[in-house]
Amino acid sequence: MEEFDHISMKIPAKAEYVGVIRLTISGIASRMGFDYELIEDLKIAASEAITNAVQHAYKDKEDGEVTIDFSLYPDRLEVMVSDKGDSFDLEKVRELAGPYTEDVQIEFMREGGLGLYLIESLMDEVRIHYDGGITVMMTKYLQGEQVETNVKTAST
């Protein structure tokens, strides 16, 4: 089994705590050797996932929590954002958002689809799990690691 360090945080499901997680990600990713651009990608993707949990999972409930787990591997950082709020239907959200085309201005895109699109475009892998809430699992590889691994696999 691959060794990794694990960090877990719980924050109140309130927008003002998103910055705390952004700072945490920045510190963790910097320590791991991620460059500035990849750290920014990680911060934006995690912020979107947390903001979705705050806005959609708990709506008017004051007592919601969002759990953020970080798994630090030698070649990648995995960030998992979980809530126990009301689930949303991913396919319905995608359908309502409609297809993304570059000629559509962002302000005209329907709410709900852009956050997920942004997360998927910034991260190397994204998985979503439903179980009495939503868990968004996002993976970002250290620069070049994923390419080297895939090249070795393809050539053997």
TrEMBL record:
Query: Where on the tree of life does the source sit, at the highest rank?
Result: Bacteria
Q: Where are the transmembrane segments?
A: none
Class of enzymatic activity (EC top level): transferase
Listed GO MF terms: ATP binding; protein serine/threonine kinase activity; sigma factor antagonist activity
User: By its UniProt entry, which Pfam families does this protein fall under?
Assistant: HATPase_c_2
NCBIfam families, per database record: PRK04069.1, rsbW_low_gc
PANTHER family named among the record's database cross-references: ANTI-SIGMA-F FACTOR RSBW-RELATED, SERINE-PROTEIN KINASE RSBW
- Database matches in HAMAP family: Anti_sigma_B
Q: Which family does it belong to?
A: Belongs to the anti-sigma-factor family.
The entry's protein name is Serine-protein kinase RsbW
- Which organism encodes this protein? Heyndrickxia coagulans
List the taxonomic lineage.
Bacteria, Bacillati, Bacillota, Bacilli, Bacillales
